Amino acid sequence: MPASIAALLRRVDLGMTLLCGDATERLAAPIRWVTTSELADPTPFLRGGELLLTTGMRLPTSKSDVLDYVARLDAAGVVGIGMGIGQHLAFRTVPPRLVHAASGAGFPLLLVDEPTPFIAIGEAVAHMHFADETAALAQALKAQQTITRAAVTAGPGGVVRQLAALTEGWALMSDVSGQVVHEAPDGTSKKHTRWRAELGRLRGGRSTSAAVSAPGEYVTVQILGDGRNLRGFLVTGRDSPPGTAHHSMTNVAAALLSVALGRGVVEPEFDTDYPDSTFDTDSAAALVDPLVRYRPYSRVPLAHSVQVWLKHHGRFEPAAAELGLHRNTLHYRIRKAADLIERDMDDPSVRAQLWAALAAPSQAKPSQAKPSQAEPT
Predict the structure, then answer these.
(1) What's the burial of 191, exposed, middle or buried (CB within 10 Å: 0-12/13-18/19+)?
(2) Are 249 and 145 in contact (CB under 8 A)?
(3) What letters, b where the CB count within 10 A reaches 16 and e where it falls short, cover 139-149?
(4) What are residue 298's phi and psi, to 5 degrees?
(5) What digits encode the pLDDT tens for the residues 189-203?
């Protein structure tokens, strides 16, 4: 649940009361940050999206000055004011002039009674941000795994179709010349053409991606290749600005499609369901072989450890917890895996290639085993 004034009002432990502004969209607007200020004009120090908390120590005394105060906060993009009152504060009740100014502007004004410290409101918003980011990360990881499965079972066409569905927009893949190889939904390349103007700049190597926006249309273009050879483009579009999850899914799809293009398995055909062999999973399995062969003499399930680490998007703490290992032990295993396959595990295309191989039905999933005596713990 995004942090908002509406969400804070549902927190009974905070005891906050909305005095005015209940009809404004700001109640549901995301709170970017909680800040405390007693300045008569705090706007030079704000960026927008803040919930401003104050005890009113320097609140102007005249109605016109308070109107100006609220108007400045409104123009600065502040989502609302929280007014702290109490026996030991500047005001025991919210000043009528502030209520009048906020009400007239349709600006949310909240009463924060003395038992509630300002820091508790900041902590509540921080917890909401953390929960929201965790949920978004979990969603992104699940989406990445879905895209990878589509690569294994349906090839590049499946990746493009799955990406379009997951991002709630459209997607297409083209070769270097701009010829569309796959698109979803059908007819996308005829309806959306603005991306073509970016290809010349991207072919020149001056950038690896581009963004094009217009009212109701947000388009991203990403090159496909291994960093040395440009092999095509991945284009996505939607009617609202893309977020972190969108970029994460697009990066995984681009890595998988780059692998496919590097193997020369993509042909410019439409409405074709590629067989399982499109991504040449037997050759991705060859990449995993050194990890599997490492186990018999080490008793270390290296392939399984790498798979769990990839499932957690390369994050060591949750992966180590799932495996029942010390973080340092998992660090050692990932370094060992990188040495065995002679690849950079920080390379997104290597991670995508490994994940595709480990997710293939033919790849047996080793069971958990105790660390060997050679492993650091």
Answers:
(1) exposed
(2) no
(3) ebbebbebbbb
(4) -110, -20
(5) 999 998 999 998 888
Is this model's pTM higher than 0.70 or not? no
Whether the Cβ atoms of residue 71 and residue 89 lie closer than 8 Å to each other = no
Plot region of 271 (φ>0 → left; ψ -120 to 50 → alpha; else → beta): left
Neighbouring residues of 140: CB distance < 8 A, sequence distance ≥ 6 = 244, 245, 248, 249, 313
Kindly state the DSSP code that residue 89 receives in the 8-state scheme.
S
The interaxial angle of helices 96-104 and 63-75, nearest 10 deg, is: 50
Rounded distance between C-alpha atoms, residue 137 and residue 346, angstroms: 18
Q: How many CA atoms lie within 13 A of 359 on its CB side?
A: 21
For 221-264, the pLDDT digits (tens) are 999 986 678 889 999 999 988 877 788 888 889 888 887 777 65
**DSSP H or E run through 278:** none
Yes or no: say if 122 and 147 are a contact pair by the CB < 8 Å rule. no
The tokens describing 285, both together, are 């399995």
